[in-house]
Predict the structure of Transporter.
Amino acid sequence: MRKLGRIIQVGFTYAGTVVGAGFATGQEILQFFTRYGWPATLSICLSTLLFVSLGIKLMLLAHDLKARSYEDMNTFLFGRSIGRWTNLFTLFTMLGVSSVMLAGAGSVFEEQFHLPYQWGLFITLCLSYLILTKGMQAIMAVNSVVVPLMLCFIGMVVWHTWSLPGSGNWLELTSDFSLGQTGLSPLLYAAFNLSMAQGVLVPLGGQIQDRHTLYWGGVTGGLIIGLMLLAGHFALSAQMPGIAQFDIPMGQLISSIGWVWQLLFACVIYGEIFTTYIADLFGISRQMEQHLQISRVWIVLSLLLFTYIISQFGFKSLLATLYPLFGLFSLAWMFMLIWPRKRGFHTN
């Protein structure tokens, strides 16, 4: 039972790291899958396969390397010379995504709770400091709460959608997108999210001694991600094309159930943003600890301050500018993960 609980914790941590602001609001599901029509169902199956197989591979490889951070992983995948540039780009990528998540937290407070944007930033920074200074166990504990709540809400949306006239759209909806665009979308989605998740999955794999726990944790996490993708696509397809006009389409679906549930769902969205934010900052802090001879507390405080400054640009502008660039890099990273060369690299 103890081992099963550990597997579930790893799975929830994996899923919680991937499921961020875009996923929880429904925007990622809409942009990467639902707008492509019925082929999106097949695309989700492909993404799920990638999340399961590459999530397992990433954690087991980190376990074998005894990797301390994503820097050790990228050095193994790309070699020392190219790996330096890869690590630098990954650092800026994670800082950018972290800033997007913090800005998203402020937007949730402003749009959903009708509280000042800066309040959302300040509360998120304080909570993040408490979690990040506690380490991996605290991150796993947070995800063990947030991910089951998200699963419950997704299940409720599916149950509500089941009786709607458009409930069969997920298998019938057509679109004008080309086959190439439809086929590339799940690869981009899996690549981007896996490359960002390495900030937590690599030290997690290096820290947990039991390979079976990592293997089945990867299976559990990948399947949870796939299940939530499919459920979200099913619910959003039933409301197409009208649902595409909303910034938070999933929140719009919840609002039809009742305002109390909408408020609770806003809390879950915030929780998903928070888990991704602390996951990215944890990955960066672990990498910086390998080079800077200063305490974790000062590293965490510096990272929190940096993301706070960048978050002042706002959620939407950061999202539109940074994510397309990150997506191209992530495809190259995923390619190297699938076909890594043996370089005789050791992290010790």
In short: The chain has one domain: 2-338. The mean pLDDT is 83. The two ends are 33 Å apart (CA to CA). Residues 80-111 form the longest helix (32 residues).
